[in-house]
Amino acid sequence: MKFYINKVDWEKFLEQISKTYRIYAPQEVYDELSYQLLSPENVNNTTYGTYRAVQPLKIFFSLPQEKVTAVTSQPEKTIVLGVKNCDLKALQVLDKIFLEGDFVDPFYRERRENTLIISSDCYQPKDTCFCTLLDNNPFPEEGFDLNVSPIDNGFLLEVGSPKGESFIASIREDLKEATSDLMEKRERKRKEAKKRVVEVNREFKTKRPFSVIVKDEYASPVWEEVTKTCVECGACTNICPSCYCFLLVDTKDEGKFPKVKFWDSCQHTGFARVAADVNPRAKLYERLRNRYLCKYEYRPENFGIVACTGCGRCVEACQGKIDKREVIKKLSEKEEK
Amino acid sequence: MTENPYLPVEAKIEKIIDETSNIKTFVLKPSRKIKFETGQFVQLTIPGIGEAPFTPSSSPYQTEKIEITIMKVGLLTGKLHEMREGEIVGIRGPYGRGYPFDDFYNKEVLVLGGGVGMAPLRSLLLTLLKNVDKFRRIVLCYGAKTPEDIVYKDAFPEWKKKKKLEILRSVDKAAPGWEETEGLVTVLLDKVKMDLKNSVAVVCGPPIMMKFGTFKLIDLGYKPESIYLSMEKNMSCGLGKCGHCALGKYYVCKDGPVFKYDLIKDIPDIWL
Ligand SMILES: Cc1cc2nc3c(=O)[nH]c(=O)nc-3n(C[C@H](O)[C@H](O)[C@H](O)COP(=O)(O)OP(=O)(O)OC[C@H]3O[C@@H](n4cnc5c(N)ncnc54)[C@H](O)[C@@H]3O)c2cc1C
Ligand code: SF4
Ligand code: SF4
Ligand code: FES
């Protein structure tokens, strides 16, 4: 189902529903897009059609720090607005981890169930964006409740789930079905956007897919070389929308067996260390390499999903100026020259 | 909210048995029955201190109480060794996949253990003995540093009387009165004749012993798919979520801790 809604009506609708939902939307703060709580005052500051926000989508579902042995109150009904395709893809990985298998993370699930995702197309990539290198598109095709594509002073609204459908029920009558002309317009804009990302990444194109390169070049000296500037800060994993690793810590808080779950990073020395100081990834380059293997080899083997979606956040966050694209290119060069 | 997999239940320490100078067996009575399969593990919590994975060393047929044999190696295990009978710990689980012992039916089972690695193997052995008619033969090769470092000292005389079970033991360094083998546990493998076509081997022990034990078994003619290894990795959640126990694409807490060697043999650096 696809509709057209003009900007004024859309914002009116948002204002109205902000009484029942907390709405977070990407807005420009100090030259970055960051999720802001929507209010009648800032509702029209939202940026829909450009690149992803600085925060990864996971912050709404897997908190950086959270008590997991105490019963928490029901999470508030939340809407995350303006989510980009790179983050939707990454959320698939987190869903696999936290919602599937023998155990379900009840905290993640509650938040996931109480959150509506309204994605939007990305027409203006950053120069760190590289979704197309991983066969992703800069526009959502699945995994959203609603998608809004900015067009003609309004939005092409696409319903992606039953949740999204009931969400717009109250304004459904006033919505016009999207014309084929509008659909074509969106198609054109999407094609151009994709071309832009491809253009940005021309120099990083490799012949072999990333998954094959990291596997084939496991023993390459390049890993050690590129790690030289890494300071082991963990920014890359914290900022990454598909990194989910965590550590349970027993605390001295009140209650029975108080445990807090913290985001953790496979880049830290002690991450895999076992007793007697045995460490399977004692060297920093081994840990850096692990991150690439996790994203491009292991998770795809587990879930059929490439766990790096090319959002480029880790490229921006890195103190050591390590760019994943350059690393892969370097690894691949030997054979492809 | 539904089941919270992070929350342990209380377990009372009913009894503490000194096995060696740095290994104790804790007999625990959980407030809720924990039914496990042999080879699966649990997470033990000392409130406010920490949590670590251990494999029950008792028989899975004994469900009221769980025995856990623990070597003192660091912070949490050190604290556990200071605890007294009557005190409370937290326990959650069981987790992972244990020994697929019905795969062993009608076969000769070679059990190779070192040090505290005997803990899960005792549970396995008790399970095998309970179903002894289903197996051709059971051979236990067990090694420890010195005779004093042997765990379950009282159990061995009993086990020696069991039909179909042969036991060979070695110590790295003998002491007066030791009449069995001296040397690394792998030397015991030269002394046993197994019907290779009809045999599986189960290995658990310190990393270095796992490595050389496995290589030796391969030399002897065991196929990788007939060797079952208990892999020890850092663990936090035990639930297949936190990422700490990764072994290539596997998570040891959910895909293991017991792995057939052929599944993991091509993953680089598995022995660390
Ligand atoms: C499936 C499984 C079954 C097991 N079964 C048994 C068993 O039956 N019996 C037995 O005795 N042992 C068993 N073990 C091993 C046991 O879990 C470890 O010996 C135990 O975790 C050691 O804990 P510790 O706190 O005493 O050791 P420590 O060495 O103090 O700590 C070990 C843990 O803390 C982390 N750590 C230590 N220092 C730091 C630091 N500075 N920064 C960050 N992290 C740090 C390590 O990475 C590791 O996770 C088993 C292990 C596994 C995986
Ligand atoms: S690895 Fe980097 S580029 Fe890939 S999804 Fe994570 S933060 Fe984005
Ligand atoms: S193993 Fe490393 S790269 Fe993979 S999800 Fe965990 S922190 Fe991220
Ligand atoms: S211990 Fe957390 S994933 Fe295995």
Q: Give me the side-by-side strand order of the main sheet of chain B.
A: 10-9-8-7-11-12-15
CATH superfamily of the largest domain in chain B: Nucleotide-binding domain of ferredoxin-NADP reductase (FNR) module
Give start-end ranges of low-pLDDT stretches of chain B.
none
CATH class of the largest domain in chain B: Alpha Beta
How many helical elements of chain B?
6
Q: Based on the structure given, which CATH architecture of the largest domain in chain B is correct? A: 3-Layer(aba) Sandwich
Distance between the termini of chain B: 39 Å
If helices are DSSP runs of H or I spanning 4 or more residues, what is the number of helices of chain A?
A: 11
Describe this structure in words.
The complex is a heterodimer of chains A (337) and B (272). In chain A, 35% of the residues lie in helices and 17% in strands. Chain A has 337 residues and is α/β, with parallel strands linked by helices. In chain A, strands 3-2-5-6-7-8-1-9 form an eight-stranded mixed beta sheet, with helices on both faces. In chain A, helix 6 packs across helix 9. The longest helix of chain A has 21 residues. The N and C termini of chain A lie far apart (48 Å). The model of chain A has no long low-confidence stretch (mean pLDDT 95). Chain B is α/β, with parallel strands linked by helices. In chain B, 18% of the residues lie in helices and 31% in strands. In chain B, the strands form three sheets. In chain B, strands 10-9-8-7-11-12-15 form a seven-stranded mixed beta sheet, with helices on both faces. The mean pLDDT of chain B is 96. Chains A and B meet through strand 10 and helix 9 of A and loops of B.
